[in-house]
Every structure is written in structure tokens, then in C-alpha cells.
# Entry
Amino acid sequence: MSTTRPCTPGDRGPDPGDGGASAVSARSVAPVDGATPGESVSPAGETPADRASTAGATPVGGASPAAGAASASVGRQIRSLSLAGESGVVPLARDFARQALYAWGWLPAAGADRRAAAEDVLLVVSELVTNACLHAEGPDGLRISLDNKVLRIEVSDRGSGQPAPRTPHRAGRPGGHGMFIVQRLCLDWGVLRTSGVTGKTVWAELGAPA
# Structure
């Protein structure tokens, strides 16, 4: 397990309010190819992370090659946020994810199912970023993409540890709950590592509301 990085109080839990979309620091966002702030898309719809996942990346933790490699397709929407060196990364990541949900029509929620789906996305973002903060010296970046009916969350870090839900899961015991929550809420999740590169990317996929 990697050395735990000291986190500010805001890094250990969700932000106080989730009522609506608020601004994210522009210096953390790198628009590319005419994308809206916070959105990064290459001309072919493929990002460096996609190329890495198909060229030497080894899926770990239950990920199949097909699930681990994000496919580039027409209409795919991607947003990326740098978290390296930032403070209060969990609220920052949740706020960024919430803005994406507003942009993609998941929010404001028209019904209970859509509201629950949006809340699941924000919770998974919180858990993945918190896990990187506590066990991987802090997250480097957050990437959220929407392709048809699947929303994919990716959190990159420099840690060498392997995230895994505690088995058997016991609610009364400390630790291990974050990845158990991710496993329960998501269609699939896994870890991508690139040969010769320090760190990893933990990804999770959720289905869009009907």
C-alpha cells in the first residue's frame, strides 16, 4: 500500500451542498478542439488515455480487455479535470461531475430514477477520489465520458496499490467500504496500468437512466 497523503478536511467526504451546478476553477480545465470548458476531445474522439488502454495497458481487478478499453464513437462526450496539487479534491471533483451531468441532461432530474442515477454518479466519483487520496498519494486527474447509455468515470493516480472491496463486507468494520459501494452501484469497474508508467487509472461505468 502506498504512503497515505495527508488530506484536508474537504478531501474526506462529499461537499456540503449538491443543490446545483457551480463553477470549477478554469485553470484546472483544459478545453481542446473547440470543446466547452472542462471537455477534452481529440479529433477522432480518442484521448491519450484511450490510446494507452489499447496499447500496453493491462486490465486488473475483473476488467476484461473490451471493458477496460474505452471505445471511440461518434457522439461521445468527454470532460477531464486535473486534480494534481489541488486541495479539497473531493468537493472539487463532485462539483465538476455535477456540471457534466447538467450539460448532458441528467440534471435537473425529472423523476426519482434520474435523481437516483445522478446521485449514484456523484457518490462513485466521491469514493474513487477519496480512495486515491487515502491510499494512492492523491489523485492526478478525473475523466468523465458519456457514450450512448454508459457513463464512465476514471480517476488516475501515481499509487501502486490495488483497490478492492473487502470480502466479506462487514458494515461495522472500518475501511474497505468505498470499493464495495462502487461494486454495488456500477455496471463494471476495474484498474488500468500502462507498462513502464508509474500509477494507474481506476475506472467505473454506470448505466444512464431510462
Remarks:
- Confidence is low (pLDDT under 50) at residues 1-6, 12-74.
